[in-house]
Design goal:
Blueprint: H1 13-18, E1 31-32, E2 35-36, H2 37-57, H3 70-95, H4 97-103, H5 115-119, H6 122-159, H7 181-186, H8 188-232, H9 247-305, H10 312-345, H11 347-353, H12 361-376, E3 382-384, E4 387-388, H13 391-415
Antiparallel strand pairs: 1-2, 3-4
Helix pairs in contact: 2-3, 3-8, 3-9, 4-9, 6-8, 6-10, 8-9, 8-10, 8-11, 9-10, 9-12, 9-13, 10-13
């Protein structure tokens, strides 16, 4: 597949090129020692991030770590969870780089080639505008949250005096390290830059991947809507309806339209299976980790609000802004997979709405076969054997998360 231009696709390709994400999957990219430069760079980045987090986690096995209160411990689990899901996302995509490159073909305006589908390309334009708006907003909001997290420790360190040799300066994520507080404070800006690198890693390898998967969901939804609309118009927009002796020509044209649209639908279904094979593990782990993160953030928020610390407002700001990032993330995944399932199932309605009653027997037989195939197609991403990823799952996750937080708070109050 050739190098795509922004105007050729129904996704926010400019965003992915700007973050050097699209270039990762280009099989014809620049080489270094017969290895793709972008892939090699990203693998080295993954190794560096993994090494850094192992170094940080070593603090739990040394006596240099300070006493960690429950909120700080929960926020450390929060940061480690984000980094783990970020590593999972980029590792899965790099491992399936060839399939991802082929999925970019799905985003082209000319992916569907049948006559009726080409007439409805305006649907893709509508979804493209929506996708670009949402992905830009999501990426910009995530970046704004990270900037808030960057500024907060600098403000706290300016106005809060370190209370002794064992108190560490505030940092972006307040990760612990196997060094003494004195050494940590002495080389504070080095650790600050390391945590900035972690934040950039999350932005590049978590949020941008979310935007990419969200964009692919929008495109698949749009393509299924194009196919459904194309089915509905079979026979209804045919110009050969005025003369009785042209009835055979009308049936022939409708049959050819039906056959070509079914070929497009099968091509889209193959891409959908490829997409699900790649992303299912990301989606399942993301739902699990997001559920845990929402519990952690909600519990930490309540704990900090009840704290007597004078500068807790800054921590409240950090936690509340991060909370909305993960609520939006979880909602978008559940919403888009819910809509995708509905659009895929509505194809049969499009088949029924075509002018099939006036067609010959050959057309009706093919229509029946297409309907049976669609009924047999139950391809969906499931979080459990009985629960599919949809808005009902989002509601269930949010309810469960807040119930768990309520139980935790009651337990804590009972001990006090």
């Amino acid at each position: 597949m050739k190098w795509l231009q922004d105007h050729e696709v129904a996704i926010n390709l400019a965003l992915f090129k700007r973050y050097q994400f699209y270039q990762i999957f280009n099989p014809n990219g620049s080489k270094l020692l017969n290895y793709d430069t972008y892939k090699l760079t990203n693998v080295m980045f993954i190794v560096a991030v993994t090494t850094y987090n192992i170094f940080s986690a070593m603090c739990f096995f040394t006596d240099t770590v300070d006493t960690i209160d429950s909120v700080d411990l929960l926020l450390m689990i929060f940061i480690y969870s984000i980094i783990i899901i970020s590593l999972l996302k980029i590792s899965v995509l790099l491992f399936n780089a060839d399939q991802i490159w082929e999925l970019f073909d799905l985003t082209r305006f000319d992916f569907l080639t049948s006559r009726q589908c080409r007439k409805n390309v305006g649907i893709l334009c509508k979804y493209r505008d929506r996708s670009i708006t949402i992905t830009n907003l999501y990426q910009n909001y995530s970046t704004m949250v990270f900037i808030i997290w960057m500024i907060t420790p600098l403000v706290l360190n300016t106005f809060v005096v370190v209370g002794g040799p064992n108190q560490r300066y505030h940092n972006i994520f307040n990760m612990q390290y196997p060094v003494s507080a004195n050494i940590y404070n002495q080389y504070y800006y080095l650790f600050y830059l390391m945590e900035i690198a972690m934040g950039i890693f999350v932005l590049n390898y978590s949020m941008i991947i979310d935007n990419f998967l969200i964009s692919l969901c929008w495109v698949i939804i749009a393509q299924y809507e194009v196919i459904t609309t194309a089915f509905e118009k079979i026979g209804n927009d045919c110009e050969l309806t005025t003369l009785q002796n042209e009835k055979n020509n009308n049936s022939f044209e409708a049959y050819e339209d039906l056959k070509s649209i079914l070929m497009d639908q099968n091509k889209l279904y193959i891409k959908l299976k490829s997409f699900y094979r790649v992303v299912w593990i990301i989606v399942i782990f993301l739902i699990i980790i997001d559920s845990v993160l929402l519990i952690i953030l909600t519990y930490s928020f309540v704990m900090i609000c009840s704290s007597a610390e004078s500068f807790s407002i800054f921590n409240i700001l950090k936690i509340s802004t991060a909370f909305f990032v993960f609520v939006i993330q979880l909602y978008l995944y559940c919403y888009l997979f819910d809509v995708l399932n509905d659009k895929k199932e509505s194809v049969n309605f499009g088949l029924y709405c075509c002018d099939w009653t006036k067609m010959d027997l050959r057309f009706k037989k093919l229509l029946l076969l297409a309907t049976k195939f669609n009924n047999a197609n139950t391809l969906k991403i499931k979080s459990t054997p009985n629960k599919i990823v949809n808005l009902q799952l989002f509601s269930s996750v949010m309810t469960t998360a807040f119930n768990i937080v309520t139980v935790m708070l009651k337990t804590m109050n009972g001990k006090n």
